[in-house]
Amino acid sequence: MMKRLFLFFVLCANLFILTVHIQAAVISNNAHKNNYTTYGSTTKSYLYEQDGFFYRVEYISGSVWVEKYTLNGEYVSLVKQITPPLSLFGAFYSGSEYNYLVFGEPNKEESTQAEVIRVEKYTKNWQYISSGSGYGLNTYIPFDAGNCSVTEYDGTLYVFTCHTMFKSSDGYNHQSNMLCIFNEEDMSLSKSSSAFYSSHSFRQSIETDGTYLFALDHGDAYPRSLKLSRSTLAATSVTSKDILAISGETGANSTGVSVSDMLLSSDKCFVVYNSVEMGDDYSASGQRNIYVAIADKTLSKVNTVQLTDYTADDGIKPYTPYIIANGDGNFSVLWEEYNGSSYTVKIKIIDQNGTVIKSGENHTVLSDCKPVCINGTLWWYTASNSEPCFYSIKLSNLESTPSPLEAYTFDSTTGTLSINGVGAVPADGPWSTNKENIKNIIIGNNITGIASSAFKEYTALETLSLGSKLGSVGSSAFNGCTSLKTVKAKSISSIESSAFAGCTALETFEFPENLTSLGSSAFDQCSSLQAAILPDSVTSLGGSCFGQCNKLKTVRLSKNIKTINSMTFYGTSSLDTIEIPYGITSVGYAAFWSSGIKAVTIPTSVTSIGSRAFSYCYYLKLISVPDTVTNIASDAFSYKKTAVYCFKDSSAEEFAVNNSMTVKYIGDVDENGTFDAADSSLILKNNDTADAQINASCDINCDGKTDILDAIASLK
Description:
The protein has five helices and 54 strands. The radius of gyration is 31 Å and the shape is globular. 48% of the residues are buried.
C-alpha cells in the first residue's frame, strides 16, 4: 500500500498546465442580421465614436466584447470582455455621460420576485458603476420575438422592449411590448408601463425630443399595423397613429412587413420599412418595396413616400432598411437587395419631405450594426464568421468602399491576380477572361468570402494567398485547380464541399486558427497534400473530406470534432499514424478504409465504430479499443493480423474473438493475466514510449500515449 501511495505522489508532482492567450479582434457573424421576415430579434452589434476612435460593442458567444478601432477601421485593442449577469442580451446604449447594457432572464415559474430585467451602468471608459433591476413585471420571457430600444433624457433612461407575459385565462403566454423607466442616478426602476400597448409587437423603437416620448411598434393583431405613439416623458397622455395598416387576418404572424427604427427631426418623425402591397391583393409573401413614412410630431398627418417599385418579375428582395441623420438636415436610407445570387446595398439621400436628392449603390453588405455618420461619411461593420470588415460611404458623392469587382488588378508579367476592396468575391468575375494565364491569386485582407465555383478549373493557378477577414470559401471554389501547390490562409471560417477537390498538385495548405468546418470532399483527390494540421476551432469534417489524399502523412484532428464521418480519410495510403482526440464519439463508415495506419488508439469518448471503418488497412498491426465502445460493426476492421487491445469482457474482446483476431488486455503489461503493482511499475518505466505495442498495453486511459496518468489509473 505504501508503495502505491509513493508512486501516486511522485507521479502527481510532475503535472503542470500552461495557458497562452493571443489577443486579436473577436470573430463573429452579423452579416444581414438586421433583416427579419416575421419576428424581430435583439440587436447584437453596435458602433459608436468617442475621442477620435470607433468602439465596437457586440454580444458574441455569451460575452459582451468592447473593442477599440481607428476611424479607418483598424483594430487597436480589446477594451473589455463583460460576462452577462443574466442569460439574455437585450441592448447596448451609449448615453451622454454613461454607457448602458440591458440583460434579461426567463421567468418560467412566473414569479413576481424573479429578476427579469437588469440594466448595468458603466463609465465612458467602461468601468462598472452600478445596476438596476426589474422583478416579475408580468414577464415570462423578456425580449421574446422582438428587440430592445433605449433612449434617455435629463437623468431618465427609457428601455422599450417586449416580453411574453404570464399565462392568461386562455392558457397562453401572450406577447406584447413593455416600457421600463429607470432613474440614472441610482438606477432604480421608477416605472414599468404598458402605455404603448401593442400585441404582438415584433419590433420596438423609442426616441425623445425632450418634450415627448415617441414609440414605434410592428404589430400583427392589436393593432395590426406599424403604430407610432406619442406620450409625455412620464409615459402618460398617449396619442397613437397607424402609419401603415396591415391587411390580413388579425393575429397572423406573417405580415409582409419589416421595420428597423425611427428618427426624429426638429418637427417630424421618420420611419423606414419594407412592405408588400396592402389591400384586396394582399399576400404576406408578396413582393416587398421600400417606403419612408413622415409624420408631424402631433401625429395628425402622415406622408408616405415609396422609394422602390419592384414587381415579382424583377426577382429582387429588398431587406429591412435603415435611416440615418446626415447632420445637414438630410437623411440616408440604406437597405440590402438580394437578387438570388448576390447582394447590393442601395442608398437614397432624402430631405425633410422625403424627396430623393441622390441615389447610389455598391456591392457591400449590411449587418445589425446600424451605420453611424461621422464627418459626412457613413460607417458600419460586417463580419461573416470573421473579424469585422468596416465599410464606408461618403455622402458628398456616394463614393463607397470598393467591392472586389472594382478593386482588382492583374499583372500579366507575373500572372498575379490581386483582389482587394471589401466584400465577397463573386463567381465569374471580370478577371475570368485571363483564366488561363492566372498563376497566383492574392485575396486582400477585407475580402469576406469567395463564391461557389469562383475559380473552378483555373488550371494555371499555382499559389493562393488568403487575407485576414475571409469567412467562407464556397463549394467547388478552387475545384480542379490542378497546378495549385501552396495555399497560405490568414483566415477562413468554413471550407465548403469540394472547395479544393481535385487539386492534385496541392502540397501545402495552412489551416487558419478560426476555421470551424470543412465540407464533404473538401480536399478529395488532393493526391500531393502532405499534412492537415487542423486547429481546435474546427467542429465538423464532411464525408470524404481528405479522401484519396494518398501522400497525406501527418494529420492533427481538432479536439472539438464529434464524429469522423464516412470515408473522411479513405485511401490515405501514406497515413501511418493518427491520434484520435478525446471528444469524438463515433468513427463512421469506411472512415479510414484502405489507409496506411499501423496503430490506432480509440479514445474513451467513442461509443461506436462503423462498417468498414478500418477495412483494407493491411498495415494495421494493432488497435486499442476501450470498453466505452459498445457498438462495433461486424466488418469494422477485418485484417486478421491486427491485434486488438481491449479490456476483459468488453465489446471489443467479443468482436476480436468472433473474428479470430489476437486479443491483448490493456493494463496487463507483463501479460501474466493479472493486474498488479508490477504492471504499474512497467507503465512508469515506459512513460512516453514510442513503441506502439508497449503503448497499447500501457495506455489505460486510451488517450494515445503512455504517461503518469496511466500509472495513476493502474494504481487505482
